[in-house]
Amino acid sequence: MTTSYTELPLVVPSPDGPSVEPLLVVAGYQGTVNRYGAPTWPMAPLIGNPSAPRETIHWMKFPDATREEFRLIAWRLVNRALPDTFLVGKVPSWRTRQSGPAIYQAVLAWRHFAHWLDKRGITSLGACTEEIFHDYGLHLSRRPGIGRSTVGQRLTALTRLWAFDEDSVLPRGIAEPPWNREGRDDYLPAATSSGGENSTEPLSPATMGPLLIWALRVVEDFADDILAAWAEKRRLTARVAEVKPTPASRALLKTFFNDLVERGQPIPTHDHPGGRRFALTYIAGTIGASYGQTNGVVGSRHGGLGLEQYMLSNPGGCPLDVPVTGLVEGKPWKRSLDFTEATAMMRHLGTAAFIVLSYLTGMRPGEVLGLRTGCCPDLASGRHLIHGRVYKTATDENGNHRSEGELRAVPWVAIAPVVSAIRVLERIVPDGSLLFDGAAHDFVSKRSSVGSVTFSSWRDRVEDFAVWASDLARSLDRPHEAVPADPHGAIGTERFRRTLAWHIARRPGGLVALAIQYGHLRTSISSGYASRSRDGIHQLLDVETARATADTLSTLHADLADGVGISGRAARRAIHAASQAPAFVGTIFTLRAARAVLEDTSLAVHDNPHAYLMCVYNREKALCHRLADRRDAPTLDRCQPTCANVTRTDHHADQLIAQAEVLEKQSVDLVPVPLAHRLQTRAQRLRDLAEKHHHDRITLPEASA
Predict the structure, then answer these.
(1) Can you tell me the distance from the alpha carbon of 649 to that of 556, in angstroms, rounded to the nearest whole number?
(2) Cβ distance 611 to 656 under 8 Å?
């Protein structure tokens, strides 16, 4: 695709000319390009990002008076680039040429402006003076329910409207918006939190744990069964389409049904909005008959058997001749694989792979949806890397957006479950395709589509997967593994990345679903893509770690004020750190604020609920690291009781006693004698730690004396 946009001539487009010039259509686009005068302009010819929305500009939604003026400027927005000189003084995110989705959003902002002008009787863009723009800017800033970011985007779109009109072969004389010279602050609503990932609520452990359990089980344990069931369903369906009805096949059908009735056996059926129905395709494929012939045999007309009432009284399933090999705790996950469930199971298999990839890599949803087969080759070293493309920040040598994207310079590091998910997806889609190709993952209607499964579809699929997994958990007598609703709403697609950072920062050394160790995962992430990419998950980890530190210090500050005691050689350092908590609690939304906390070594207090202690980290005193391994953060899954950084509060002592009681009960009621002795020894050790705390504890007044 050429990038010499500024060399294209200034022309007045013909009504029958293309809305997108041929040299700008992305490689591989197979659809049509509407003409300039058409009522709609699809943006798809401009979009190479597989996960980007493919919106359409509808010109009939513009007011009649100004429609053609906006259309002419929009054509230049689509087909031409602004001069490079226009970027002087602009922020780095400005481009002389935008992506297809960004162009659509700009024209949508123009449409809002067009209707505002129409309500004021303004019928030409030439009447857009600086005062008109000033009034509209104030109108936007005062509208209820519109955010600062949205207003900023609309103001920027109007700056482009002025710039492209000024550079047009038929300029309308639009005035320069005042915010282009004076700044936008006077036209923006009051600032709130930064929004984006840092303000997104992580999924609760109660929701994320079982959701990941089932996603991993489906990918690693059930995938072979599901793929085999899908292949068998397609074979039977294809057989029905190919077979020709014969007297012999009719006789086989009658024998099949008469035998079921004589033995009182159920008839294969499927759910239908109007009630149970004969599973005609399954029956026909199994017997080797046509669909129409099977329908005729079960009915009451033309010599049929009239089995409707019997079927309603004896509905059965549609078991496939496919063995069940997947196990849950040594037991088959299903009694049989059903013809009517194969499509839904394939959908859930793809969703399970999406969850595993999204959660265990730290990728953004768009990055996951941009992966293709072969992105994770097998390496002799056993260390797997994922190679993908970046779209949002991809530009050419002139700073213009490259819709086809570019290969990411630094790959992601993949742990074993992620590799398994990729291998499963490579069995679903054709070679060279997107792992989440929209056509390949449409198991119902097999519609032709371009790009990946859409974000909105994934939101629905993830919610459906949670419901299906919960039903499966209950059917296997594992109600504790059902997926509860998250207290902050729908699971969605955007929250997995934040949730991963939350678990790494706040559950070090802990286990979330099937013994995936987040200490190991953090090492993998930090040694790969995250540590060298300016927009990687490493920044999100910093923010979440700083928040965890702030929450720990805030809780400790409140506990000490309430008279809670604290012990350990690091107790006074912990008290000093807690005294600073009110200064930054609730303020950590940006990377700068997070790093200010993380770089202050006096604030390095880490709660470790698994070891019933807090670490007031001092690198020189830490016992969790070898001498040659002096890190800036503790390794909390290797806490040593004798470490000078350890401190405990009364709450930790209470937890020690509670855990000791649990172990003592287990030693009496549940286990053989040798193991019981070990449990009792462990319980006594916990009681000794609690007793030492109560002997050494001090309170805030005592520490200040």
Answers:
(1) 9
(2) no
SS3 661: helix
For the record, the structure tokens of 198 come out as: 């840092």
CB 372 within 8 A of CB 433: yes
The CA angle 358-362-367, to the nearest 5 degrees, is 65
Q: What is the mean pLDDT of each run of 10 residues along the chain (705 residues)?
A: 49 88 87 94 90 91 95 92 72 75 94 96 93 92 84 92 85 90 78 52 84 93 97 96 92 93 94 89 94 88 80 94 94 95 96 93 86 87 79 69 76 85 96 92 77 88 96 94 91 84 60 34 40 47 74 86 90 87 65 74 83 87 66 73 90 92 80 78 91 91 75
Q: Cα–Cα distance between 157 and 121 in angstroms, integer?
A: 22
Whose tokens are 């008290």? That residue is: 575
Q: How far is CA 255 from CA 260, 261, 304, 308, 420, in A?
A: 9, 10, 12, 17, 45
Rounded to the nearest 5°, which phi and psi values hold at 508? -65, 135
Q: Strand, helix or coil at 275?
A: coil
> CA-to-CA distance for 676 and 683, rounded, in angstroms?
10
CA-to-CA distance for 142 and 151, rounded, in angstroms? 10
Q: Please choose, from the candidates 156, 146, 151, 157, the residue with its C-alpha nearest in 3D space to the C-alpha of residue 111.
A: 157
Convert 582-594 to b/e letters by CB count within 10 Å (16 or more is b).
eebeeebbebebb
Instruction: Label the pairing between strands 267-270 and 277-278.
Output: antiparallel
Report d(CA 664, CA 676) in Å as an integer.
8
Sequential DSSP letters for 106-156? HHHHHHHHHHHHHHTT---GGG--HHHHHHHHHHHHH-TT--HHHHHHHHH
**Contact between residue 51 and residue 493 where contact means Cβ atoms under 8 Å apart:** no
Measured in degrees and rounded to the nearest 5, phi and psi for residue 401 equal: -65, 135
CA triplet 682, 684, 688: central angle to 5 degrees? 115
C-alpha 404/C-alpha 2 separation (Å) is 12
Q: Which residues pair with 605 in a beta bridge?
A: 616
- HEC letters along 25-49: CCCCCCCCCCECCCCEEECHHHCCC
CA distance 216 to 515: 11
How far is 316 from 267, CA to CA, in rounded Å? 5
- Give me the amino acid identity at 401: H
Show the 3-state SS of 475-525: HCCCHHHCCCCCCCCCCCCCHHHHHHHHHHHHCCCCECCCCCEHHHHHHHH
Rg (CA), the chain: 32
3-state secondary structure 399-454: CCECCCCEECCCCEEECHHHHHHHHHHHHHCCCCCECCECCCCCCCCCCCCCCECC
